[in-house]
## 1
Amino acid sequence: MSGEPIKSRSGDVAAQQAAKDGSLPASKPSTSEDIAAFVAKAKAMSPHAPGSKGRLIFALDATMSRQPTWDMACALQADMFREAAALGSLDIRLVYYRGYDECRATRWISDSAELARLMGKIDCRGGNTQIGKVLSDARREGAASGVRAVVFVGDAMEEKVDDLCAKAGELGMLKVPVFLFQEGHDADAEQAFREIARLTGGAWCRFDPGAAAQLKELLRAAAAYAAGGREALMRLSARESGAARLLGQMK
């Protein structure tokens, strides 16, 4: 599957090459001017404007250890659309990483069948985590067009926690919560995921390996929030524990 081209700054050869092959470029440290401009834009916009269409970034670790969860996600992502359809509308941007330095993103998709088709073309490959690129992409999209929420499904974290937290803080300023759904019991991943959730106003939840029902509820709850905001999540929490778990952690 070819990912969406990523716009690059002039003179940035690596980013320009990434734009050609559809991969997400590695992010660079922000200058003081970048930060000032970002803060100003964050204050001037709201991804939750009345009547706006919900946008959800659905990010997946597609390294080799993720194969079982990837298969589940392919089957369960339709539930996100169904939940959103009952509340309004939802666009999803699929982001995934795998292999050696490969991280790709699709364009915004509003059709569940198309998303399933694209996901079906992806196979898992060994490699290290690239969560930083996922958060950077969410920041760019959040500042450019508004993102209601980010969902991340993974089982590991092999990056510098402080760097991830800095990116998470920027998402928090944009009021874009990150919902991190962790498979397994990796302690380093849990510590990082919990902190990212805290900084963005999102939530962290663990699900058991192979537990489709648990993941299904969590994905549906995130979709409800992205499509209908906190009120939609509150209504869903009255009948589903997954929504209640998210709501209980959100600021």
## 2
Amino acid sequence: MSNQSQHTTRRSNDAPSIRIVSEVTERIAQSVGQVIIGKRNEVRLAILGLLCKGHILIEDIPGVGKTMMARALAKVVGCSFSRIQFTPDMLPSDITGVSIYNQRTNEFEFRPGPIMAQVVLADEINRATPKTQSALLEAMEEKQVTVEGVTYKMDNPFIILATQNPIEYEGTFPLPEAQLDRFMIRIQMGYPAPAEEITILSAQQFQHPIANLQQVISLEELLRAQAAINHVYVADEIKQYIVNLVTATRAHSDVYLGSSPRGSLALFRTTQARAAMAGRDYVVPDDVKALADVTLAHRIIVGPSARIKDISARTIVQDVLAVTPVPGASAR
């Protein structure tokens, strides 16, 4: 059987499993949309990160719904949940946990920290010192924590939803590059439109809508949807397009440090999820273009001279998209 026939057969066999992705997406989006008004694209990006088993960084000014987005997303999914409120005096052990000596058993017992949950809300993550922030590195990459030489595995799935204020605000510390690179996507909320803000006022007149939010999918459904994404077909031309984009960020004249190979993997995986959310079992170039900014921009360090000119990483991604040739769409 030819490779083309194998791809065609595989897609028809996997088509029923792909449907669960769009079904789960719509249920979560409809429920979270009751709390996060007028941010349909941002909500769907957060769902996309969840389906990809990727960590999500929600960045914007205070008061635009960052924490509420993370709380709502965690509440509608059937996973264990914990929240960490980051502060300047927090220690790494406050996150990972500690071993305490038990006098009755004459042994040390591990008391797990709040990181030991399936969905973790790291609220205002950049208000903690870099030393404390680095306590998340092993957990985010290897899905485990090591305390006093003993390694503890995380449950599946393990996802961190982090919020942060722009680094120009007082009392914030920039996230280390190694940690930024571990976030699959970065979402920026933005202000609501005036009409949407009026809706927000009306919705919260008596109580916050999140109080009535209910779980809408089970853990089994989430795991099935996450597994189905792996079967979305990505043509070799699309893979080459992804690599060309990432390579171009490294060669850009305004860039000090371009996107890492982890950025290529993030863009690859998120395009699979976007296709499945749309009911497709194959990726098209528009999927790549739609997700390049949220997967690559936070991995790019702009050069000093470009920063003086107010050139941002997002601008560089747009430049790269404009000059990189787009392949013809292929479903086979």
## 3
Amino acid sequence: MTALAPDPSLPDAMPNWAKTEAAKRWVLDNLGRWHWFRPEDPGAPPVFHLLAEGRTPVPMGHIEG
């Protein structure tokens, strides 16, 4: 579900990415209790673009929202 990963050359990108992935898995596992994002769910799964702030700030948000 992660379509874009942070640049590993940026300071703290890798440890922060690991924490983010753990949190993402926790959320998806809990949403799975309602059968969201499971094989029986007809909807499209979420796609994550995980970015690390470095040379430019990273905006937070989602498409059309």
## 4
Amino acid sequence: MKALITGGSSGIGLSFAKALSKMGYDIILVARDEKKLKEAKNIIGNHTETIAMDISIEKNCKKLYEQLKDDDINILVNSAGFGLHGKFLEDDLDMQMRMIDLNIKATQILTKLFLQKMKEENKGYILNIASTAAFSPGPLMASYFATKAYILRLTEAISEEIRHENSNVYVGCLCPGPVDTHFNDTLGVKFSKAQNSDKLAHYALKKMFQRKTVIIPTVNHKMNAFFNKFVPLKILLNANYNVQVKKIENAKKK
């Protein structure tokens, strides 16, 4: 049994790798930073393969599939991604496009290619990592929130298609709130109630094996996702804007 994890050198991806390794899976980690991959391999231990590759580049996603298509990949966790924090007009356009390439295009391509193989074999699990950001628009993180909304809706739709075909393949989406990882350092913000990534991974895998399509880890975030459906858009936008302003202000104080 093998598990392929993108963005597996740190953060949520590494936590999934550690958890799946303890369950007996051989691990394949994909990330850009070869040094971090080696460090991750040392943490996980034996039966770990690393592939240094930038999957924000479309041809690399296809190359990765060609490299692994004959392996017995039982689980794919699309964890690679990053965020941008700031005004849409002030964010660097090249960084915005790279985020779209990584958060959306890489997940889309790898999901499609590995899902085709899994469907033929009538087995396998694909877990895409979105965010509670997927449930509302995000002023001052506009592009990031939009990428996560895309992943959530894409995954929900694919899952329903698979269900109607009576396939044993699972396709689901994890939507965590803030997680205590280097992702937040990249954004330049701090969260007072960030989730532990190891606990998150264990919870998500439990729900994945129970075939839960949309996995939201905490009660508070489940409630927020539910009530966001009923809050008037103007109120929701203003509230989210003020939340992001406060995060920026708190980050500057530290």
